[in-house]
Amino acid sequence: MNERLRSALVQRGLTVAEVAAECGVDPKTASRWVSGRVPQRRHRWSIAHLLGLDEEHLWPEAPDNVAGASAATSEIVATFANRASVPRDLWLALLRGASKHIDVLVFSGTFFAQTNPHIARMLQERAEAGARVRLCFGDPEGQAVRLRGEEEGIGESLAAKIRASLTYYRTLVGRPGCEVHLHDTTLYNSLFRYDDQLLVNPHVWGQPASANPLFQLRRTDGTDAEWFNRYEQSFDAIWSTTRPWAPEK
Questions:
Q1: Which of 189, 183, 184 is nearest to 227 (CA)?
Q2: Taking all residues of the chain, what is their mean pLDDT, rounded to a whole number?
Q3: Would the pTM of this model clear 0.90, i.e. be above it?
Q4: Taking the C-alpha atoms of 158, 160, 166 and 170 in order, what is their torsion angle to the nearest 10 degrees?
Q5: CA neighbor of 217 nearest in space, from 67, 79, 10
Q6: Which pLDDT score, from 0 to 100, does residue 67 have?
Q7: How would you class 126 by CB atoms within 10 Å of its CB: exposed for 0-12, middle for 13-18, buried for 19 or more?
Q8: pLDDT value at 239 more than 90
């Protein structure tokens, strides 16, 4: 699957049929491009022009692009001006496609449940299918949440948002394959991992996470491609310091 091409189409609301029409080919041919087949150079140029992206970004491993592509750059699937601009369909597609790992690191993550009223059930289904689900929220009693609330100018509201957000995940506590923990660390990024796909939401001082940029990474082979691995390691490091959340009775 060409995740960069698929994500770009989702972002712009374009269909495979529209791509086929732009290139003058059969929709089945365009579908194969999304599935991973590399188009001819003239078609790559047409698609890149349609999407407003660089050809090398969409096909970094094409024979005539490899020389100019670095391993680190090839990890970047897509970028978004802010988290709010990430299409809901992309969140759902990544969640439904995860079969091994779902890791979430946030302070409150309110949007995660509010934009998907079935989030707990879907996470449980993924766990029942064999995925390990780890959800990590800020400790509403911790110093990190208190400081972040002050920096954003919302005071105790952040702690209240966390408590409200946690209520959506009550049914996951104690379920095989599902863990809900609390952390008390300075959070430089919110992380959303789905197997070999990772959404990274950097935090800008004093601004809510929803207003900050977000970029999508994919795990790649090669010793020089380390973005995904570094963020994965940071999640594990924070997870090792957390404590399980127990809903109030």
A1: 189
A2: 89
A3: no
A4: 170
A5: 79
A6: 45
A7: buried
A8: yes
